[in-house]
Protein backbone atom coordinates (compact mmCIF):
# COMPACT_ATOMS: atom_id res chain seq x y z
CA UNK A 1 0.00 0.00 0.00
CA UNK A 2 1.22 3.48 -0.87
CA UNK A 3 -0.39 6.52 0.81
CA UNK A 4 0.07 10.25 0.26
CA UNK A 5 -0.31 12.63 3.22
CA UNK A 6 -1.44 16.16 2.36
CA UNK A 7 -1.85 19.12 4.70
CA UNK A 8 -1.17 22.85 5.17
CA UNK A 9 1.85 24.21 3.33
CA UNK A 10 3.52 25.54 6.50
CA UNK A 11 3.33 22.29 8.48
CA UNK A 12 7.10 22.25 9.09
CA UNK A 13 7.79 26.00 9.33
CA UNK A 14 4.94 26.66 11.79
CA UNK A 15 4.97 23.48 13.81
CA UNK A 16 2.05 22.42 15.96
CA UNK A 17 0.28 19.36 17.26
CA UNK A 18 -0.74 18.42 13.71
CA UNK A 19 2.96 18.35 12.74
CA UNK A 20 3.63 15.78 15.45
CA UNK A 21 0.48 13.85 14.52
CA UNK A 22 1.51 13.53 10.87
CA UNK A 23 5.14 12.59 11.53
CA UNK A 24 4.36 10.12 14.31
CA UNK A 25 1.53 8.49 12.36
CA UNK A 26 3.86 8.01 9.41
CA UNK A 27 6.71 6.74 11.62
CA UNK A 28 4.64 4.19 13.49
CA UNK A 29 2.66 2.93 10.51
CA UNK A 30 5.82 2.37 8.47
CA UNK A 31 7.51 0.75 11.46
CA UNK A 32 4.60 -1.56 12.22
CA UNK A 33 3.49 -2.26 8.64
CA UNK A 34 6.57 -2.61 6.37
CA UNK A 35 4.35 -3.06 3.31
CA UNK A 36 2.95 0.49 3.66
CA UNK A 37 4.88 3.47 2.27
CA UNK A 38 3.85 7.03 3.12
CA UNK A 39 4.89 10.28 1.40
CA UNK A 40 4.11 13.85 2.50
CA UNK A 41 3.29 16.46 -0.14
CA UNK A 42 1.38 19.76 0.02
CA UNK A 43 0.97 20.17 -3.75
CA UNK A 44 -2.78 20.49 -4.51
CA UNK A 45 -2.13 19.23 -8.06
CA UNK A 46 0.05 16.26 -7.10
CA UNK A 47 0.11 13.28 -9.45
CA UNK A 48 -1.64 10.50 -7.49
CA UNK A 49 -1.23 7.71 -10.05
CA UNK A 50 1.24 5.76 -7.88
CA UNK A 51 -0.84 6.01 -4.67
CA UNK A 52 -3.59 3.74 -3.39
CA UNK A 53 -5.26 6.49 -1.37
CA UNK A 54 -4.81 10.01 -0.01
CA UNK A 55 -4.87 10.95 3.70
CA UNK A 56 -5.61 14.65 4.24
CA UNK A 57 -5.25 16.50 7.54
CA UNK A 58 -7.02 19.54 9.01
CA UNK A 59 -10.48 20.97 8.33
CA UNK A 60 -9.43 24.22 9.99
CA UNK A 61 -7.73 25.30 6.78
CA UNK A 62 -10.48 24.44 4.28
CA UNK A 63 -8.88 26.64 1.60
CA UNK A 64 -6.18 23.98 1.19
CA UNK A 65 -8.10 20.87 2.22
CA UNK A 66 -10.77 21.33 -0.46
CA UNK A 67 -8.10 21.47 -3.18
CA UNK A 68 -6.47 18.24 -1.96
CA UNK A 69 -9.87 16.51 -1.90
CA UNK A 70 -10.89 17.70 -5.34
CA UNK A 71 -7.57 16.54 -6.73
CA UNK A 72 -8.12 13.09 -5.19
CA UNK A 73 -11.63 12.86 -6.60
CA UNK A 74 -10.46 14.00 -10.06
CA UNK A 75 -7.93 11.14 -10.05
CA UNK A 76 -10.41 8.58 -8.65
CA UNK A 77 -8.62 8.11 -5.33
CA UNK A 78 -10.25 7.39 -1.97
CA UNK A 79 -9.60 10.11 0.62
CA UNK A 80 -9.38 9.82 4.41
CA UNK A 81 -9.59 13.04 6.42
CA UNK A 82 -8.13 13.63 9.90
CA UNK A 83 -10.57 16.36 10.82
CA UNK A 84 -8.64 18.27 13.55
CA UNK A 85 -11.81 20.31 14.03
CA UNK A 86 -13.19 22.78 16.53
CA UNK A 87 -15.07 26.07 16.57
CA UNK A 88 -13.11 28.97 18.03
CA UNK A 89 -15.85 31.59 18.44
CA UNK A 90 -15.24 32.02 22.17
CA UNK A 91 -11.50 32.27 21.69
CA UNK A 92 -11.77 34.81 18.87
CA UNK A 93 -14.07 37.04 20.94
CA UNK A 94 -12.45 36.64 24.36
CA UNK A 95 -8.95 35.25 23.97
CA UNK A 96 -7.66 37.22 21.00
CA UNK A 97 -5.87 40.53 21.31
CA UNK A 98 -6.28 44.10 20.14
CA UNK A 99 -8.22 45.10 17.03
CA UNK A 100 -8.88 41.50 15.99
CA UNK A 101 -10.69 40.84 19.26
CA UNK A 102 -12.79 44.01 18.89
CA UNK A 103 -13.80 43.21 15.30
CA UNK A 104 -14.59 39.58 16.11
CA UNK A 105 -17.10 40.69 18.74
CA UNK A 106 -19.05 42.58 16.08
CA UNK A 107 -19.32 39.99 13.30
CA UNK A 108 -20.40 36.39 12.76
CA UNK A 109 -18.06 33.39 12.88
CA UNK A 110 -18.07 33.11 9.10
CA UNK A 111 -17.41 36.84 8.92
CA UNK A 112 -14.30 36.36 11.08
CA UNK A 113 -13.01 33.60 8.83
CA UNK A 114 -13.71 35.59 5.67
CA UNK A 115 -11.65 38.47 7.08
CA UNK A 116 -8.82 36.05 7.87
CA UNK A 117 -9.09 34.74 4.33
CA UNK A 118 -8.78 38.27 2.93
CA UNK A 119 -5.68 38.86 5.06
CA UNK A 120 -4.13 35.60 3.90
CA UNK A 121 -4.94 36.31 0.25
CA UNK A 122 -3.73 39.89 0.02
CA UNK A 123 -1.08 40.13 2.75
CA UNK A 124 0.12 36.69 3.86
CA UNK A 125 0.97 35.26 0.45
CA UNK A 126 -1.83 32.65 0.18
CA UNK A 127 -3.03 33.98 -3.17
CA UNK A 128 -4.54 30.83 -4.65
CA UNK A 129 -7.89 29.38 -5.71
CA UNK A 130 -8.64 27.82 -2.32
CA UNK A 131 -8.34 31.10 -0.39
CA UNK A 132 -10.35 32.89 -3.08
CA UNK A 133 -13.10 30.28 -2.75
CA UNK A 134 -13.15 30.65 1.05
CA UNK A 135 -13.70 34.40 0.65
CA UNK A 136 -16.49 33.89 -1.92
CA UNK A 137 -18.33 30.94 -0.40
CA UNK A 138 -17.63 31.29 3.31
CA UNK A 139 -15.86 29.09 5.84
CA UNK A 140 -18.74 26.84 6.92
CA UNK A 141 -19.92 26.18 3.37
CA UNK A 142 -16.40 25.20 2.29
CA UNK A 143 -16.11 22.86 5.27
CA UNK A 144 -19.46 21.29 4.34
CA UNK A 145 -18.16 20.62 0.84
CA UNK A 146 -15.12 18.92 2.38
CA UNK A 147 -17.30 16.66 4.52
CA UNK A 148 -19.43 15.79 1.50
CA UNK A 149 -16.38 14.67 -0.49
CA UNK A 150 -14.28 12.86 2.14
CA UNK A 151 -14.73 9.09 2.08
CA UNK A 152 -13.82 8.54 5.75
CA UNK A 153 -13.35 10.92 8.68
CA UNK A 154 -10.69 10.20 11.30
CA UNK A 155 -11.46 12.48 14.29
CA UNK A 156 -9.36 12.40 17.47
CA UNK A 157 -12.39 11.85 19.69
CA UNK A 158 -16.13 11.31 19.86
CA UNK A 159 -16.49 14.87 21.17
CA UNK A 160 -14.90 16.22 18.00
CA UNK A 161 -17.31 14.16 15.90
CA UNK A 162 -20.29 15.30 17.97
CA UNK A 163 -19.33 18.92 17.32
CA UNK A 164 -19.08 18.28 13.57
CA UNK A 165 -22.46 16.56 13.56
CA UNK A 166 -24.09 19.32 15.61
CA UNK A 167 -22.99 21.92 13.04
CA UNK A 168 -23.46 20.02 9.78
CA UNK A 169 -26.12 17.37 10.57
CA UNK A 170 -28.87 16.30 10.00
CA UNK A 171 -28.32 16.97 6.31
CA UNK A 172 -25.24 14.73 6.14
CA UNK A 173 -24.45 11.07 6.75
CA UNK A 174 -20.83 10.86 7.87
CA UNK A 175 -18.61 7.77 7.99
CA UNK A 176 -15.96 7.99 10.68
CA UNK A 177 -13.47 6.07 12.79
CA UNK A 178 -11.96 7.63 15.93
CA UNK A 179 -8.13 7.65 15.93
CA UNK A 180 -6.82 8.87 19.30
CA UNK A 181 -4.15 11.46 19.82
CA UNK A 182 -1.20 9.69 21.37
CA UNK A 183 2.22 9.57 23.01
CA UNK A 184 5.46 7.89 22.05
CA UNK A 185 5.84 5.39 24.90
CA UNK A 186 9.47 4.81 23.93
CA UNK A 187 10.38 8.43 24.71
CA UNK A 188 7.99 9.62 27.42
CA UNK A 189 7.92 7.78 30.74
CA UNK A 190 7.94 8.57 34.43
CA UNK A 191 11.22 8.95 36.32
CA UNK A 192 10.17 8.26 39.90
CA UNK A 193 13.51 9.46 41.35
CA UNK A 194 13.60 12.91 39.72
CA UNK A 195 13.38 16.08 41.80
CA UNK A 196 10.25 17.94 40.75
CA UNK A 197 10.10 21.59 41.71
CA UNK A 198 8.59 23.50 38.77
CA UNK A 199 5.33 24.01 36.95
CA UNK A 200 5.75 23.60 33.19
CA UNK A 201 3.85 24.80 30.14
CA UNK A 202 4.95 23.50 26.72
CA UNK A 203 3.48 24.87 23.51
CA UNK A 204 3.62 27.44 20.75
CA UNK A 205 3.39 30.97 22.17
CA UNK A 206 0.08 32.28 20.84
CA UNK A 207 -3.23 33.59 22.19
CA UNK A 208 -5.04 30.24 21.73
CA UNK A 209 -2.60 28.51 24.09
CA UNK A 210 -3.33 31.28 26.63
CA UNK A 211 0.13 31.63 28.17
CA UNK A 212 -0.57 35.29 28.95
CA UNK A 213 -3.35 34.44 31.40
CA UNK A 214 -1.17 31.69 32.85
CA UNK A 215 1.59 34.22 33.59
CA UNK A 216 -0.95 36.55 35.19
CA UNK A 217 -2.15 33.67 37.35
CA UNK A 218 1.41 32.96 38.45
CA UNK A 219 2.05 36.46 39.67
CA UNK A 220 0.14 35.43 42.78
CA UNK A 221 1.63 31.95 43.23
CA UNK A 222 4.78 30.81 45.10
CA UNK A 223 5.85 28.18 42.53
CA UNK A 224 8.30 28.49 39.65
CA UNK A 225 6.81 28.46 36.14
CA UNK A 226 8.79 27.51 33.02
CA UNK A 227 7.23 28.18 29.63
CA UNK A 228 8.91 26.31 26.76
CA UNK A 229 8.04 27.18 23.18
CA UNK A 230 8.49 29.61 20.34
CA UNK A 231 6.43 32.44 18.87
CA UNK A 232 5.87 32.55 15.12
CA UNK A 233 6.83 35.83 13.49
CA UNK A 234 3.12 36.76 13.43
CA UNK A 235 2.94 36.31 17.22
CA UNK A 236 5.82 38.53 18.33
CA UNK A 237 3.41 41.03 19.91
CA UNK A 238 1.93 38.24 21.97
CA UNK A 239 5.38 37.12 23.11
CA UNK A 240 6.17 40.69 24.11
CA UNK A 241 2.90 40.88 26.07
CA UNK A 242 3.90 37.67 27.86
CA UNK A 243 7.29 39.13 28.76
CA UNK A 244 5.73 42.40 29.94
CA UNK A 245 3.28 40.52 32.19
CA UNK A 246 6.04 38.86 34.21
CA UNK A 247 6.22 40.65 37.58
CA UNK A 248 8.78 38.56 39.46
CA UNK A 249 11.52 36.01 38.99
CA UNK A 250 9.38 32.91 39.39
CA UNK A 251 8.43 32.89 35.68
CA UNK A 252 10.97 31.87 33.01
CA UNK A 253 10.53 31.68 29.23
CA UNK A 254 12.79 29.21 27.37
CA UNK A 255 13.09 28.24 23.72
CA UNK A 256 11.38 25.30 22.05
CA UNK A 257 13.20 21.99 22.65
CA UNK A 258 13.31 18.64 20.87
CA UNK A 259 11.71 15.49 22.27
CA UNK A 260 14.86 14.33 24.09
CA UNK A 261 15.22 17.61 25.96
CA UNK A 262 11.47 17.82 26.46
CA UNK A 263 11.52 14.59 28.45
CA UNK A 264 14.11 16.18 30.76
CA UNK A 265 11.82 19.18 31.28
CA UNK A 266 8.86 16.96 32.08
CA UNK A 267 11.04 15.14 34.62
CA UNK A 268 11.63 18.43 36.47
CA UNK A 269 7.94 19.34 36.56
CA UNK A 270 5.48 18.56 39.31
CA UNK A 271 2.62 20.00 37.23
CA UNK A 272 2.10 20.66 33.54
CA UNK A 273 -0.43 23.36 32.60
CA UNK A 274 -2.15 23.91 29.25
CA UNK A 275 -4.96 26.44 29.84
CA UNK A 276 -5.86 26.73 26.12
CA UNK A 277 -9.08 28.18 24.80
CA UNK A 278 -9.61 24.76 23.19
CA UNK A 279 -7.58 21.57 22.69
CA UNK A 280 -8.15 18.09 21.28
CA UNK A 281 -6.79 17.23 23.83
CA UNK A 282 -3.23 18.62 23.65
CA UNK A 283 -0.39 16.22 22.86
CA UNK A 284 1.86 17.80 25.49
CA UNK A 285 -0.72 17.08 28.19
CA UNK A 286 -0.64 13.39 27.28
CA UNK A 287 3.17 13.38 27.24
CA UNK A 288 3.42 15.20 30.58
CA UNK A 289 0.89 12.89 32.23
CA UNK A 290 2.97 9.78 31.49
CA UNK A 291 6.20 11.60 32.42
CA UNK A 292 5.31 12.08 36.09
CA UNK A 293 3.33 15.32 36.03
CA UNK A 294 -0.12 16.07 37.32
CA UNK A 295 -1.85 18.01 34.57
CA UNK A 296 -3.97 21.14 34.44
CA UNK A 297 -6.01 21.42 31.26
CA UNK A 298 -8.78 23.51 29.73
CA UNK A 299 -12.41 22.56 30.05
CA UNK A 300 -12.78 23.15 26.28
CA UNK A 301 -12.44 20.57 23.51
CA UNK A 302 -11.99 16.82 24.05
CA UNK A 303 -9.98 17.02 27.28
CA UNK A 304 -12.58 15.32 29.49
CA UNK A 305 -12.96 12.50 26.99
CA UNK A 306 -9.25 11.72 27.37
CA UNK A 307 -8.54 12.61 30.99
CA UNK A 308 -11.85 12.07 32.78
CA UNK A 309 -11.53 12.77 36.50
CA UNK A 310 -7.74 12.39 36.44
CA UNK A 311 -6.86 15.96 35.44
CA UNK A 312 -7.36 19.38 37.04
CA UNK A 313 -9.57 21.61 34.90
CA UNK A 314 -9.55 25.38 34.52
CA UNK A 315 -11.61 28.02 32.75
CA UNK A 316 -9.23 29.70 30.26
CA UNK A 317 -10.63 33.20 30.75
CA UNK A 318 -10.63 33.07 34.56
CA UNK A 319 -7.32 33.81 36.34
CA UNK A 320 -8.59 32.52 39.69
CA UNK A 321 -9.74 29.26 38.09
CA UNK A 322 -6.27 28.72 36.59
CA UNK A 323 -4.64 29.50 39.95
CA UNK A 324 -6.87 27.11 41.89
CA UNK A 325 -6.31 24.24 39.45
CA UNK A 326 -2.52 24.72 39.68
CA UNK A 327 -2.55 24.80 43.49
CA UNK A 328 -4.72 21.67 43.66
CA UNK A 329 -2.52 19.80 41.16
CA UNK A 330 0.73 20.89 42.83
CA UNK A 331 -0.37 19.72 46.28
CA UNK A 332 -1.76 16.38 45.12
CA UNK A 333 0.23 13.12 44.80
CA UNK A 334 1.14 12.04 41.27
CA UNK A 335 -1.81 10.44 39.50
CA UNK A 336 -0.40 7.11 38.35
CA UNK A 337 -3.85 5.95 37.28
CA UNK A 338 -3.81 8.44 34.41
CA UNK A 339 -0.31 7.35 33.37
CA UNK A 340 -1.49 3.73 33.21
CA UNK A 341 -4.58 4.59 31.19
CA UNK A 342 -2.68 6.68 28.64
CA UNK A 343 -0.07 3.96 28.17
CA UNK A 344 -2.93 1.52 27.67
CA UNK A 345 -5.24 3.54 25.40
CA UNK A 346 -3.39 6.46 23.82
CA UNK A 347 -0.10 5.39 22.17
CA UNK A 348 1.10 6.00 18.61
CA UNK A 349 1.24 2.24 18.18
CA UNK A 350 -2.53 2.10 18.70
CA UNK A 351 -3.13 5.20 16.60
CA UNK A 352 -1.19 3.57 13.75
CA UNK A 353 -3.32 0.42 13.95
CA UNK A 354 -6.58 2.39 13.96
CA UNK A 355 -5.43 4.51 11.01
CA UNK A 356 -4.50 1.43 8.98
CA UNK A 357 -7.90 -0.06 9.86
CA UNK A 358 -9.36 3.03 8.19
CA UNK A 359 -7.17 2.58 5.10
CA UNK A 360 -8.21 -1.05 4.73
CA UNK A 361 -11.85 -0.08 5.14
CA UNK A 362 -11.53 2.46 2.32
CA UNK A 363 -9.70 0.11 -0.02
CA UNK A 364 -12.17 -2.72 0.59
CA UNK A 365 -15.01 -0.29 -0.13
CA UNK A 366 -13.27 0.75 -3.34
CA UNK A 367 -12.96 -2.91 -4.41
CA UNK A 368 -16.66 -3.43 -3.70
CA UNK A 369 -17.58 -0.40 -5.79
CA UNK A 370 -15.38 -1.59 -8.68
CA UNK A 371 -16.93 -5.06 -8.43
CA UNK A 372 -20.42 -3.62 -8.40
CA UNK A 373 -19.58 -1.51 -11.45
From TrEMBL:
InterPro entries: Glyco_trans_1
Transmembrane regions: none
Keyword terms, alphabetized: Glycosyltransferase, Transferase
A GO MF label: glycosyltransferase activity
Highest taxon of the lineage: Bacteria
Pfam families reported for this sequence: Glycos_transf_1 (PF00534)
EC number annotated for this UniProt entry: 2.4.-.-
Identification of the protein by name: Glycosyltransferase
